[in-house]
Amino acid sequence: MNKHTIYTEVLVVGSGPAGFSAAYTAAKNGANVILVEQCGNVGGISTSGLMSHWAGSCASPIYNEILKRSAQESEGEFYNKITTIIDPEKLKTLYLEMLCAVGVRILLYTFACDAIMDGNAIKGVSVVNKSGFTDIYSDVIIDATGDGDIACKSGAEYFKGRETDGKMQPATIMFKVGGVCYEKAVFPPSFETLIETEKGELQSLGKKILPPPSGHVLLYKTTLPGIVTCNMTNCIEIDGTNADDLTKATITCRKQMDDIVKFLREYAPGFENCFIISSAPLIGVRETRHFKGEYVLTEEDILNAKVFEDYIVKDAHFNFDVHNISGAGLDKSGVQHGFKQNAGYTIPYRCLLPEKIENLLLCGRNISGTHMAHSNFRAMPICAGIGEAAGAAAAVAVKNKVSVRKVKSYEIRDLIFN
User: Which of 358, 418, 412 is nearest to 390 (CA)?
Assistant: First the structure.
């Protein structure tokens, strides 16, 4: 089969909130950008993953722009109202409109399969799609795949999961149910939200009745009447970088859906007549590879609200959202309601720079951080902020004809915040 060759200044692989923000920001600031996405839509977990809402927060202009534009596109109860609730269908279109407006070339249905290396420098990425194999050469490559697939293939150093045993957070398929009576319905937003019903406390009932490893009850309003997003399927002990494990997780989570609906009809007020209307075509993988960058963000950095001299993300805020690695609910190491640090924290540029690989930027949940720190910065608004910084850094690098390692943090901040 013939192989094609193309060139761009900035190549972004993966189009979740991090990858979208990186591609949009780089192109908005004058770079020639190609965005590669294996799914048929832009947005990753925020769209194809049917994520219910933007959890956490970040002082990111691109994140705020997404919220503002989403409100302008919304209807009914949420017309012209800023909300963190996601309408995935409208968000799919919004992402595409924004990317096209700044001239990003988008390659959907395209799988990035290898890194093109010259010593310790990455020069491009090999991709495959219906058109065949293509080598895309680029001055800057931004790995926003979540799992860090290209960083891994380039030889960047990483570890998986938590440091003690390599085990990773469970995977989930999000799904939506219709037929819900909002006037009666309950919406537990966290594992620690306890709701008393006529038949007992809802979380306790879930743990007792639902087939393990499912067992928690997380229900979220949508922008549409009578429709609720369920974050309740659960598959433990899988590696999201392994195709067999991803298949196992998909089968496991799908098998749980009917039991979850039966449970909701019987025990959740307002859900007596609910039924499945859609499920995510993209499984939600929370944790895989953690890459070693010039700096490793730690749990203590977050708890101390550390302000780094070379910060490129600011006012990031979430909790330690560690889903139970051995079952349902919150892991014993996780902290949600009890998370006391309300000041927000910063992320330094060094976390985006892998130690030994040139021309590569880490972007999103694969940046350099510990297992516990990752459980915080993996929140989508923070990933959008990270992507925005990566895109700005790439734009500076190609404009000044320097490597991304030579870009100064203040140059990135000037593009983002000024």
Answer: 412
Distances (CA, A) of 61 to 58, 84, 104, 233, 314: 9, 15, 19, 33, 11
The predicted-structure confidence for 349-383, as pLDDT tens digits, reads as follows: 999 999 999 999 999 999 999 999 999 999 999 99
* Amino acid residing at 355: E
Strand partners, 230: 175, 219
Distance CA 324, CA 21 (A): 30
Per-residue pLDDT of 282-303, as tens digits, reads 999 999 999 999 999 999 999 9
Q: Confidence class of residue 210 from pLDDT cuts 50, 70 and 90?
A: very high
Query: How distant is the alpha carbon of residue 316 from its chain centre?
Result: 15
Round to whole Å and give the CA distance between 129 and 268: 44
For 4-33, give one letter per residue: b (16+ CB within 10 A) or e: eeeebbbbbbbbbbbbbbbbbbbbbbebbb
Do you know the residue count of the chain? 418
d(CA 285, CA 241): 9
- Find, among 292, 411, 401, 290, the residue nearest to 353 by Cα: 292
Q: How confident is the model at residue 2 (pLDDT cuts 50, 70, 90)?
A: confident
pLDDT at 225 over 80: yes
Q: Domain spans of the chain?
A: 3-163+290-314+348-417, 171-285
* Single pTM value for the model: 0.97
- Cα–Cα distance, 227 to 231 (Å, whole number): 13
- Using the 8-state DSSP alphabet, how is residue 358 labeled? B
Q: Which of 189, 158, 219, 172 is nearest to 319 (CA)?
A: 189
Q: Is the dihedral of CA 178, 184, 188, 189 positive or negative?
A: positive
Domain 3-163+290-314+348-417 fold is FAD/NAD(P)-binding domain (3.50.50)
3-class secondary structure, 56: coil
